[in-house]
């Protein structure tokens, strides 16, 4: 099934077509954008002009060609601040209904804020925070606690309206930016529930996306993906300084920046920095999921996933045809190995390490779906570069390193771009967890679940691993003997395997 939604914003109009994957997840198939700048056609006395109506109609007719090609029916069509604020909005809705296949639904300030909030909590694991969405003509902020919306507000300014009000040319002067900042700061200070909250800010929308892409470019960021990318105040200031050092012509050529946002990005960055300082935020995080996703989350439910991360792992298992029965048995074995190694103080391990090991067990060698021979390489690439809702980028790379473990050489190759992310001690632990997981998988090589339990004991310097089996174990014994060397190297102790046939 395919689903379509049209988002008529103040700066851009966008048609997105989604398709359901094996897991039930909505995947983006088409994304058609038009930089219509409808805000420019709203007069000072609040009327949307005839020229603006022609621009709106032309854009929707372009989208209509695409939706008819895909044979889409009942396409959702929503409009935000500019159409909402137009005094002749009823006439706009009637005109579009007569001329196109679409029926415009004008979102209220609450609905616009709510759908952004809903997208954030459905795609991240935050239980409390501030969301912000800078559009072209309005800025929505919310405060949520225990994943429930507590407060919301829609400010009557966006990146485009701020530029029109405060900036005479294409880029702001120092004085213009100072005036703009004072205005935005006064607006934010009017909300007591924003001030000094010391919470994460989760940003959605095109302006936030461009800020993140510019920062990733400046950092030579080693992996793909912007969802849940984290920045601090200094990072935002770095982006602002870089952008302000460029001429407008240079801004238009920045690869990480949409050309149609070149004159809007600096006002937007100023809003983000001001909000960060107002909230005294702990971090600034991008959610790639926004208003459009929130509308579909409401339609397809559940309204709030019990665990965003659990949902993500379910999607991975479905999309890459993971053998869940095999995974569950290996998980049982690797937990036994982990607990006993920890009890015998064979390696410094923590509860957080066990959480990571359990996650990695669910996606170990997931890359087999692509190619059996290069499954380790595909596993690392897929997990490190795929958006996994609920996991930070650092956690995602950790997961990829453990779940793709094959040998020391490949591990060092994979971790090389991330040396600054992990200490040598952390890298050693990730390698150990990967080696342990690979060994556990060898104990179920034939996927018959024949190893019922594992018992470890120390005999002098040797780790004796007793494996109690319900059936013949020759294949498992061969693989376990082959792969134990990776664990031996990490423990700096020999491992002796003793298989026992029970019953």
TrEMBL record:
Similarity-based family: Belongs to the GppA/Ppx family.
Name the UniProt record assigns to this protein: Ppx/GppA family phosphatase
Sequence ranges assigned to domain Ppx/GppA phosphatase C-terminal in this UniProt record: 312-476
A GO BP entry: regulation of transcription by RNA polymerase II
Origin: domain of life: Bacteria
SUPFAM superfamilies to which the protein is assigned, alphabetical: Actin-like ATPase domain (SSF53067), HD-domain/PDEase-like (SSF109604)
InterPro entries associated with the record: ATPase_NBD, GppA/Ppx_hydrolase, Ppx_GppA_C, Ppx_GppA_N
Lineage of source species: Bacteria, Bacillati, Bacillota, Bacilli, Bacillales
Sequence ranges assigned to domain Ppx/GppA phosphatase N-terminal in this UniProt record: 33-299
